[in-house]
UniProtKB/TrEMBL annotation:
A Pfam match: DUF3391
Protein name per the record: Cyclic di-GMP phosphodiesterase response regulator RpfG
EC number(s) reported in the record: 3.1.4.52
Molecular functions (GO terms): cyclic-guanylate-specific phosphodiesterase activity; transferase activity
Entry keywords, A to Z: Hydrolase, Transferase
Location of the HD-GYP domain: 144-339
Source organism (scientific name): Tepidimonas ignava
UniProt keyword annotation of Transferase present: yes
Enzyme class: hydrolase
Superkingdom of the organism of origin: Bacteria
InterPro entries linked to this entry: DUF3391 (IPR021812), HD/PDEase_dom (IPR003607), HD_GYP_dom (IPR037522), HDIG_dom (IPR006675)
Amino acid sequence: MLKRIRVEDVRLGMYIHGFAGSWLDHPFWRSRFLLDDPRDLERIRASAVREVWIDVSQGADVAPDASVTATADTPEAAAEETARVLDEALQRRVQPTTQPQELQRAARLLASAHGAVKDMFHDARMGRAIDRQVMRAVAEDIADSVTRNAGALISLARVKTADEYTYMHSVAVCALMVALGRQLGLPDELVRAAGFAGLLHDVGKADVPLEILNKPGKLTDDEFAIIREHPRKGWQRLRAAGITDEAALDVCLHHHERVDGTGYPEGLSGEALTLLARMGAVCDVYDAITSNRPYKAGWDPAESLRRMASWKGHFDERVFQAFVRSLGIYPTGSLVRLSNQRLAVVVEQNPGNLLKPVVKTVLSLRSGERLVPERIDLAAPGCKVTIEQREDPAQWRIPDLDEIWSGIPGLGRASAHA
């Protein structure tokens, strides 16, 4: 028997089955455990969570005078009840925000998501099951952030060190899948399924030896053969964890396939690939090539889109075009040359005109001197300034470029030295 009770009634000896709220509201990566440590009890009571589910068949029951707000005979029933409560709060969670507002929330979310995904990979390497409840909650909160403001979390997730890549890549692909699904006009349920699939798509890399995964040089043929097995290994891990979501299994197994049939592991092509698999292929590659890796620095976002557009037969063209629209012709963080002879960094998109984003000036091309950043909406009425071309940030060596567009002190400096 499962019971939902107030945190005030939680006591040692109870078996915690789940938390009735966002995973960000409590300090535990795992949601199911025997509460036998007084410090954990204090952490629960000090958290933002106000109710928890307990399993009285595996631990202590509530006191006779305690308040029980709901009961369930099975874990599935408890999950349905929790989902109903969360659905009622969904509209409150996804009210639109400005990009500066969402950047601050997204930064906190990314820090927590990094820890949760790192824990998932560690558990997988140790042979422990994936905590489906935690991973789904992570994906839901990422989807909420992207729904509130599409550009904030996606832009921040791109800025990561080489050491963070394996874990933050999963978070970034989750966010990119949500944004792409929304751009394609998919139903909200399918958009969130796509995000969950993106979060789990690379779990098979837990079976790849770290010395291969983090190798700074070129892989041997044998090493690459091991890498090529990670989609199938991940698919097997998801099934073993009891994850039956068709979207998650499909994207995990097929995110390295190509529409011309030259991908792996099954060499599928054309209509044999589902829409979500095609989405996964685009999102996976974009984050991979824009991120700092052990063996190379990430490419500029705008340059990455240009190169991806030239890879004929790699991506579904309709999906790729929608992906570009979801990010912008000049994605946030891109360095551009303006018609007034200034360099600027893109800080936000104008959905109505992808060629005229909001930018911040950083350098005068006439004098070669740094500028006090000035925010310019290139789509504003009367604005005559235009973008002439994209610029390679590596050529200009502006160390605080990510800090300028995001407004977050120190952002990007660690990754610049990775």
